[in-house]
Each structure stands twice: as C-alpha cells, then as structure tokens.
Amino acid sequence: MPPPERAPAARFPVADPATGEAFDEAPDQHPDELDAVVGRAHRAWHGWRADPAARTTALRLAADTVESAADRLARLLTREQGKPLAESHAETARTAARLRYFADLTAPETRRITDGRPVHSEIRWRSAGPVAAIVPWNFPLQLAAAKFAPALAAGNPVVLKPSPYTPLATRLLCSLLADAFPEDVLTVVTGREPLGARLAAHPGIRHVTFTGSVPTGRAVAGAAAASLARVTLELGGNDAAVLLDDADVDRIADRLFWAAFRNCGQVCMAVKRVYAPARLHAEVVEALAQRAKAVTVGPGLDPATRLGPLNNAPQLARVESITAQALADGARAAAGGHRLDRPGWFFAPTVLTGVPPGSRVVTEEQFGPVLPVLPYRVLDEAVHAANGTGFGLGGSVWGTDLDRAQAVAERLECGTAWINHHAELSLAQPFAGAKDSGVGVAGGPWGLYGNLRPFVVHRPQEPCG
Ligand code: NAD
After folding, report:
1. Which residues share a beta bridge with 126?
2. How far is it, in rounded angstroms, from Cα 356 to Cα 276?
C-alpha cells in the first residue's frame, strides 16, 4: 500500500506593500511545533555556552556573511517591508554592525567579593538559557540582530519570531547564517498568532525579548509570567520635539522632517509631535509642509523614491482613521491628509496644524507619515505636554543656546533625549524606554548582561571554617 500522503505544510501569503498584492509565502508553523524547536535549542545550548572564543568567531563570520549578501537581503527587505532600497541597505549594514559589536563584547570578569568575612566568594556570569526573540515589521533585520546578537554572545540559543508581515528577509538571513552557527543555536519560526503568544509562554524559554506595541508587550509579559521567564520589552513611543524660541528653523527643518518621516514614520523613536513657540509656529509648519509636498513617494525599489508605502493594510487604515479624526476635530492639513489614489498602501506625507491637544494623533502613537505641529506660549506648558502621555521612549529639544536646550532636555521623561537631533543611537548606549515604553535594558553591554545570570560560589578559607 502506498504511504498516506502528507498534508502540504501550511503557508501564508506575504504582500508587497507597494502593490498590495501577495508576491510570496512563508511557512505558517503551528504552535505545537514549538516544543520540538525549543527542545532542540536546549540541546544546542550545552555546546554553545561552553566556548566563548568560538562564539566570537561565529558572530564575526555572521557579520561578514550579512555584508556579503547585502544586496539580496536589502532587495527582499524592501519588497516585503516597503522602505526605499537605500534604507534597506542601511538596515542591512546596521544588522552586520550589531553582530560585530556583540562579537567583541565579553561577559564581566569573575569578581571576588571582599566584605571582610573570612570566606572566598566569587561572582561569575553564566548564560541564562534559551531566548525567545519576537520582532515587529518596521526594522525586521536590524531589530532581530539587536536581540539575537547579544543573546548568542552570552551563550544562549535563540528562537526568533519575525512579524507575519515581514518573515522573508529574516528567513533568508537565518538560512545564510546557518554556516556561521552550530545547528539549532539560532532558529527562525514563522506563522500567525498564537505562535508568538505560545512562544512567549513556552516553559523552556528563560528570557523573552520583545519589540512591538504597548498592548502586545503587556500580553507578552503576562504570557512569560507563566514560566517566570525574564522579559525585556522595547515598546512604542510618542516622542515629542520641543523647539525653543531661538531655534533656527531653516537650519533644522530637514533634520526635523526626516526625524518624523523616515521609514514612512514607522519608527518607534520617530518625532511624533512637534511643539513650536507661537512666534515660530507658522514658519515651522510651512517649512515641514514644503518638504512633505516635495518628497518623492513611491515603491521602495524605484531609485527616485524617498518615502515608501506603509507596511500593511491595517496600519494604513489606522493612520487614515487617526488623521480623519484630527481633521474632524478641527485640524487643518498643511500638506497631505489622505491616502494616495494608487495601488499599495500609500499615504500622503501629512503635516497637521490646529490640532486639539486631546486628539488621538497627539495622545496615541500614529506610526505613519503624519505629524502634528502644536503651538505653545510658555515653555513649561510645552514640557508638561511633551511629558503628558503614557509613553517615554525618546524626546528632543531644538535651539541655538545648547546649555539652555540641555536644561530643557533633562526635564523630558524618557529614555534618551537629544539636542538638535532625534533617534541618533550608539551601539554602545543603553536603550530603555521610561513609563509604558519599555521594561529592561537593551543595547551596549547592558544588552549582553540582560542575557546572563549571576552565579556565586561561596567557599570557606578553612575546610571547616
Ligand atoms: P505588534 O506588537 O503588533 O507585534 C510585534 C510582534 O509581536 C510581531 O512579531 C507579532 O506577530 C507578535 N505578536 C502579536 N501578538 C502577540 C502575542 N499575543 N504574543 C506574542 N507575540 C505577539 O507590533 P508591530 O505592529 O509589529 O510593530 C509596531 C510597534 O512596535 C509600534 O508600537 C512601535 O513603536 C513598536 N516598536 C518599538 C521599538 C522599540 O525599540 N521600542 C522598535 C520598533 C518598533
């Protein structure tokens, strides 16, 4: 008798945001597969954690591999994410940079505790165990590497789950890295929910590192509570840019515009609200609106494109609804204000003025190419409003007197504050949101430490001491 035919493995479609049409598909893995995946990761852990020098070599090789496959990775990333090809190349380069940075970081040295007691106590740092890395769709490769590079450097195996909107470049990345890492040290799983929820709750996972929205972050924290795995949550933001009355609008307009509109506004640390002194307000609106009207919007693979589409249909619907509500509340669109009449998920770059402070585009994270510019009369009011949401990821202050700008920046309740810049990050800095924007610390040596656990050996100086 012929063997029974196996059902074809389930797959789900992946769309090109520039057309709105599916162009490929990815495996729709069933959550029940996670037991086997996490089990294999556990077995791979024993060899991987034993040899720090081999980890350094593997991570460096991984960085080289990403660089030599940059064209393939960048094209596929643009195809599924929508961003302009130059931005995909920049993201691929940042992916390699993260691998190289963590390749060369080492765990803290063994330290002796000297507290006067007649004992010999030593603190060592050990790998914490299998890590679940759950990633959103706005920077699929860079954010994946920001999670798996420190976890692997610390000696932990990783199960990586990309967003179902952007699984393909991550799958390609992991298949390219298969030659750099031992089997099952880095595994990618793709599929629709509840795959992520089940991964976060899996009893074999010791650390869940998640980047995404605040509501999903809360769900992940709840799921991880089942196994008491530690969580690192990098969540949403609603960053304010506060312009001071000595800001030179001509000089800052380009940088401010791109701080809000890069990646079509789909950046956790984008400028999402601008507070301008009443005296400069019209000039700021005009400078930003001019740029919004002039920027070339189109498919990411077109070399002329500076702004691509939104990544997915629900995100376009959300941006459309938040903008429509602001306009209904009495705001005026100095540029844009509507979706573009073409295939794909394009929204016109939008600058809003006259927005009531309680409007959703001010209080929520719009995560799209829409920027409200709000006037203020008294600086304290602007700082109060900047701090007035549940978010606390980043913020910036723009002015010519740097000491005064810094004094204002230090009043922002957020993880990183910039002066005359926004979202410029160093690999060596801690990355941690305040308030609802995050739990735990990623980035720099802290990103590595978050994947280690202390182990203390306590021995007397005499056999029976
Ligand atoms: P999301 O929260 O919807 O999804 C993020 C990831 O979680 C995806 O892989 C998704 O499939 C998965 N997921 C969905 N439900 C889950 C569940 N119940 N349990 C476990 N995993 C689940 O976010 P998104 O829409 O993909 O990304 C946009 C959000 O990410 C924005 O809020 C943005 O600010 C945030 N973000 C934050 C940072 C940061 O570093 N702070 C960086 C980038 C993006």
Report:
1. 453
2. 14
Topology, domain 239-419: Aldehyde Dehydrogenase; Chain A, domain 2 (3.40.309)
* pTM of structure: 0.96
In the chain, the N- to C-terminal Cα span, in Å, equals 74
Task: Check residue 1 and give its pLDDT.
Answer: 47
Q: Dmax over Cα atoms in the chain, in whole Å?
A: 85
> Is the confidence at residue 434, as pLDDT, over 90?
yes
Q: Which CATH number fits domain 11-235+428-456: 3.30.70.100, 3.20.20.70, 3.40.630.10, 3.40.605.10?
A: 3.40.605.10
What is the structure's pLDDT at 8?
Answer: 60
Which structure tokens are listed for 17? Answer: 């945001």
**What are the pocket residues of ligand 1 if the criterion is a CB atom closer than 6 Å to any ligand atom?**
134-138, 143, 161, 163-164, 193, 196-197, 200, 211-213, 216, 219-220, 223, 234-237, 268, 365, 367, 393, 433, 438
Look up residue 377 and give its two tokens: 């009369």
Six token digits for residue 330 = 């009495």
Please report, for the chain, the start and end positions of each structural domain, with discontinuous segments joined by +.
11-235+428-456, 239-419
Distance from C-alpha of 271 to C-alpha of 372, rounded to nearest angstrom? 10
E strand spans, 109-200: 111-113, 119-127, 131-134, 158-161, 186-188
Pick from 163, 216, 232, 235 the residue to mutate for probing ligand 1's pocket: most ligand atoms within 8 Å of its CB. Answer: 216
Distance of CA 345 to the CA centre of its chain: 21
Distance CA 171, CA 368 (A): 26
Q: Which of 17-26, 77-86, 433-442, 453-462 has the lowest mean pLDDT?
A: 453-462
408-426: pLDDT as tens digits:
999 999 999 999 999 999 9
Q: Which residues are catalytic?
A: 234, 268
Element (H, E) at 99: helix 85-103
Residue 4 has pLDDT above 60, yes or no: no
Question: How far apart, in whole angstroms, are the C-alpha atoms of residue 151 and residue 157?
Answer: 7
